Amino acid sequence: MDALADKVKETLNLSTAKVALPSSFEKYAVTHAATSNAATWKDALAAVSAPKDAVLTKTLVFKPKVAKTAVATLIMVVALDTTATNAGQVAKAAGEKEARFAAADVVKEALGVSVEQGIYSILHTAVLTQVSPLSISNDNASKVQVLLDNNLLASSDLLAFHPSDACKTVFITAPELRDYLTATGVKLTGVDFAAPSVGGYDSVLRLE
User: Fold this and answer.
1) Any residues with CB less than 8 A from the CB of 148 and at least 6 apart, and which?
2) What is the domain-level CATH number for residue 138?
3) Structural domain span for residue 199
4) Distance between CA 108 and CA 135 in Å, rounded?
């Protein structure tokens, strides 16, 4: 039992790399208490001078099932926090047969960032809490593809993101996010996660 406890402590103490943001993104950036989920993030922002009409987002990273000898291109889902997603939708939209949540070490190897984790159960997998589309750069863009929630793309509100730091939030618009990602060369796909046939012609839009 002590060994398991030590392993949990080791996991929680993973260092966190700070992302070098474009100077324009720092215009609406705030520091706050550390957060571990949407509820604590909302509370933390309420306690500081953050834009009151900003919308929370979520970033999920999946690993597609590939042959043991193949290198998987990770799938990053960037969506409004209120948008429901599931692994089946993600895999289909990405053109994969199957996808599962990527482990912390896999994300670190692909994106070059260390992420802190929150343990929701000692007997279950650790949950990534600080991954962000702002972790993508020209150097690692080939190792991931991004699925962008159509609701997020259509939003006219400021969008809140953690720049790989649970104690900081930056607020940018959907066009700013898209321009940033486009500049990295990463593959972008717009997805209507509410569509019953995600992956079909009407629900997936390749973004050039």
Assistant:
1) 78, 79, 178, 188, 189, 190, 191, 207
2) 3.90.960.10
3) 2-207
4) 10
With bands split at pLDDT 50, 70 and 90, how would you rate the model's confidence at 64? very high
- Give the number of domains in the chain: 1
Confidence class for position 116, pLDDT limits 50, 70, 90: low
CA distance between the termini of the chain:
51
Q: Containing H/E element for 197? A: none
> What is the phi-psi region of residue 142: left when phi exceeds 0, alpha when psi lies from -120 to 50, beta otherwise?
alpha
Are 69 and 174 spatial neighbours (Cβ–Cβ below 8 Å)?
Answer: no
Closest CA to 166 of 119, 133, 135, 129: 129
Query: Does pLDDT of 122 surpass 50?
Result: no
**Angle in degrees, CA 47, 56, 10, rounded to 5:** 80
Give pTM, 2 decimals: 0.80
